[in-house]
């Protein structure tokens, strides 16, 4: 069955044909059914196992790579960040490939490449083998395909719950990774960390083919799908450029940071075996202490100012780390760093979602993620160069200067009203042409933008939450 996406904006209406059929009939339900819940959990675990494989190496490689043949600070940085380059290049093409072929085939391909990369790195005898393995790990760029799979196996009204489950898995994975990495390395060395990555990749394949349901056909979800016709307009959207550059800088700081954090632990006398417990305490404290800032950022008109505060927190943390002398000060400054990082990791994509037009969130996330992965790569390379020609403080002082530039750039971030996205099922008996349905929705108080997918009877709305009332659209909904 053919369907059409109807984009409505000030420039007029554009219809684009898609081929998709809903896996579930559009009916309203207040809760996820067992199949949807199990699918969401399984996909969250797939995210978790892949990110475990990518991130467990971060706190370990700078400590042990010096033992590898041909190792230099620059090549260590490249090894840490190279996966970001391959992910940036392949994430959108693999997502588009999953629209043409089956989701599971593309995910399987990505996991197999990831496992291969892990094995190459595990058997490497020099730093170049590690770099090749990490590059291949990044080639398994399946995040966008996994998000598309969520849309295939859940109903529209349950997707936000599924995404919340997946978000929890992603949020957990980073903390678990940097705690597990030093533990595994202490018992099995660097090759053991990469073998662990390969094993979790195999676990991912088992979960994919035994637990995740196979969709009978593919669905169009514009909250996750990249629409290439909209890519350039999103890429050059002046309102989004400061946000995309922001996530570039954020992940640049993170990757460059993990070139020096393990070395700082050593400098203040913390043994390698104890790194895991320090990371665990630092991350736990940062999550607890960021809670008040999350509450403040939710208040109307405060998101930009909280972003700016957090950029300043990052700046002060890096300046403090550059001159730190003792373990207590090191822990305090690292807690501050991760408060800033964790909160910006939440605020930046939320702001991006408010800025993009209705129906282009998936495209916006595609551009945003590309900048994120490029920042990861840049952090490894630039951090490695700085460490080659300077020392730990050189890396941190230069990054502090970059942070000042980011702070100045943050004044270009729009201070938005409470703009939110809504995805609604339309009644099958509305009986109006698509353009009249769109015009009717746009006439509702607080509705700013509308995109309609015909046949699936799904509409994507951008609304001003201060003026929008759900009851005003009941005439259109299931």
What is the second-level CATH architecture of the largest domain? Up-down Bundle
CATH superfamily of the largest domain: MFS general substrate transporter like domains
Q: What does the radius of gyration come to? A: 23 Å
The strand line-up of the biggest sheet is 2-1-4-5-3
> What portion of the residues fall into strands of 2 or more residues?
5-15%
- The number of distinct β-strands equals 5
Average pLDDT confidence is 82
Helix content: 55-70%
Helices and strands: which structural class? alpha+beta
**Which fold name corresponds to the CATH topology of the largest domain?**
Growth Hormone, Chain: A
Instruction: Assign an overall shape.
Output: globular
- Secondary-structure element pattern, one letter each: EEHHHHHHHHHHHHHHEHEE
Cα-to-Cα separation, first versus last residue: 21 Å
- Our count of domains comes out at 3
Summarize the main sheet: 5 strands, antiparallel
General description of the model:
α10 (275-297) packs across α12 (327-355). It is built from 15 helices and five strands. A five-stranded antiparallel sheet has the order 2-1-4-5-3, with helices on both faces. With 478 residues, the chain is α+β, with helices and mostly antiparallel strands.
